[in-house]
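FAQ

Q: What does a record look like?
A: Structure on top, sequence underneath. For example:
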């Protein structure tokens, strides 16, 4: 049974990836907004922002930009899922001897692959803009792990949106608050510089702990409790989103 699920997921993921390769503008579009934000913040606003950290501003803000990249990219997952449902693809799959869960996992794994490509593009531009890190290989692996878990978590949220949306606009609109969330965190300025109520929210929302963890790994600093808070948020939301997505999918496929 496990082999059956894995082989079905592999075949359907290949189908979704071919769609991505035929329209690479999707990945480029996903990377354009974060790159534009980097250019504006570093070259226009960076000189007026005081982080209190002994690092260049591009090093300081890159973790937040990477999260925005992922938040922008997952909107396409809900969009493609919605189109598959409207186009009757799901009904065709249900009439075939394939594992039901493989249909959703194919979209999820495609999202991870596409977002990783976008992240590489953004990091490439950041390097051209002066980003530097002496982090060892294991730190980069840890950063990749955090970003992949973040992508998986948000993608399952996107699956819920794609399954429950009533229109194409509704399928992707859910990502806007997620894109905005890093702006109310430690991604671009220290939370200490914010008014008290906003600072409290920024310090206690998941993006801040994730950003702080990635920043510490890049700078080879102590992770402290941020990494455990980040993992708790990511795993908790992942489990809840996955469970809700499966329940919703079963209802839709009856």
């Amino acid at each position: 049974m496990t082999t059956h699920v894995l082989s079905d997921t592999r075949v359907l993921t290949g189908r979704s990836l071919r769609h991505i390769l035929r329209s690479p503008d999707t990945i480029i579009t996903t990377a354009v907004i974060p790159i534009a934000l980097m250019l504006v913040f570093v070259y226009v606003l960076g000189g007026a922002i005081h982080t209190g950290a002994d690092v260049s501003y591009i090093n300081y803000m890159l973790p937040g930009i990477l999260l925005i990249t992922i938040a922008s990219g997952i909107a396409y997952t809900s969009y493609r899922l919605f189109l598959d449902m409207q186009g009757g693809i799901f009904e065709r799959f249900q009439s075939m001897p394939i594992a039901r869960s493989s249909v959703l996992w194919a979209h999820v794994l495609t999202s991870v692959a596409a977002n990783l490509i976008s992240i590489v593009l953004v990091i490439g531009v950041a390097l051209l803009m002066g980003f530097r890190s002496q982090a060892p290989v294991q730190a980069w692996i840890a950063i990749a792990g955090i970003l992949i878990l973040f992508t998986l978590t948000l993608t399952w949220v996107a699956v819920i949106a794609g399954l429950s949306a009533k229109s194409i606009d509704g399928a992707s609109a859910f990502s806007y608050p997620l894109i905005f969330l890093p702006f109310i965190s430690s991604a671009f300025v220290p939370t200490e510089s914010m008014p008290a109520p906003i600072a409290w929210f920024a310090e206690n929302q998941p993006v801040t702990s994730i950003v702080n963890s990635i920043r510490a790994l890049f700078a080879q600093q102590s992770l402290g409790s941020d990494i455990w808070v980040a993992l708790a948020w990511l795993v908790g939301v992942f489990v809840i989103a996955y469970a809700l997505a499966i329940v919703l999918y079963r209802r839709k496929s009856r």
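Q: Is there anything notable about this one?
A: DSSP finds twelve helices and no strands in the chain.
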